[in-house]
Amino acid sequence: MSIIDLASYMPSHQPSADVPAFKHAMGRLAGAVNVITIGTGQSRTGFTATSVSSYSVEPPTILVSLNRNSSSWQALLEARSFAVNILAEGQSDVADRFAGRGGIKGNDRYVGWEWDRLGSGTLGLSGAVSVIDCDIDEIIERHSHAIVLGRVRTVETDPDVSPLLYWRGDYQNLAGL
Fold it and tell me: Do 62 and 132 meet the contact criterion of CB atoms below 8 Å apart?
């Protein structure tokens, strides 16, 4: 795969968008709440993300965005796999813990919930809408974030639960929108 540097095609004097206006606009974009689990054993960690998307169907590949200043960044670089756990209604406490609220870090983020060991060795959250086990295919560093492409190993889905959403700076349920 080749990466095209679009900066070489654009004038260098192009103005940037107003950051507060951009943040406000992105807050109006409803997104599924996901917990990305990384690592095994005591080196286990993870983070909460709404920037998750299907990237390719052939081969099945998912895209996750991560701030490179995140405490999970180094662990992701060292990992060979990760899992995307699409959270269900009622799992906002999991999202908060993996977002670092309360100062909880690393392996301690997993305490208090039931997890299943996936084929990659990464953990998947029981009761999630879906759990997608991935091998890291490629990492593209750009600006403050990295785009992580994960080749999907397996997918588990519970058709009887509804997703937890994030909109306007707070958790939402489908029924509440």
Answer: yes
